[in-house]
């Protein structure tokens, strides 16, 4: 074999099931919200690992710096709410809301888009033999056999044709039940009038 044999298939990244992806997203968003944005870097870390894009790694570092600064700001504020100025309360609130909204929105948008683009790419292309290998007689023979006897696709679901329901029998049954009900109501009506 002079190196003309089949090449190994490309490694495909394993895609988690939609249920797993949804669970991971819910957990990461919940952790981010419950920590008031201080653990937003966890969602960004997952995103950077999944997409492997430099922009996501840079944004992870930015979020970590913002989280550290927010933590330092919270620690530096007085414990008594009366001692805090309105400006510092407003600044802290805006910081938390902006961090929460930015991290959650960016994380969900990019991750969902990333996995939908993977899904749209589909499976890798099947292996095709090199052009010089098509002239080999045994390959031509097997190709002719494949064209003569097409193999059924094991991935298609064969559904049996629907069985027709005998409509006249059903109609007769309904008619008989309605007649019985009509007789019963007449009988009840006569007994009610006779009292």
Model description:
The protein is mainly α and 195 residues long. The chain is built from 6 helices and no strands. The chain has helices spanning 18-34, 40-51, 54-76, 86-121, 137-148, 167-194. The longest helix has 36 residues, at 86-121. It is elongated. The model is unreliable at 5-12 and 123-129 (pLDDT under 50).
- The tally of helices reads 6
Q: Find the count of extended strands (DSSP E, 2+ residues).
A: 0
- What is the C-alpha radius of gyration, as a whole number of Å? 35 Å
> In percent, how helical is the residue content?
55-70%
Biggest sheet, in brief? none
From the N-terminal CA to the C-terminal CA, the straight-line distance is: 104 Å
Q: Overall 3D geometry?
A: elongated
Mean pLDDT, nearest integer?
76
Contiguous uncertain segments of 5+ residues: 5-12, 123-129
Topology record:
Layout: H1 18-34, H2 40-51, H3 54-76, H4 86-121, H5 137-148, H6 167-194
Helix pairs in contact: 1-2, 1-4, 2-3, 2-4, 3-4
Please sum up the structure shown.
With 195 residues, the chain is an all-alpha fold. Helices cover 66% and strands 0% of the residues.
List keywords for this structure.
195 residues; mainly alpha; 0% strand
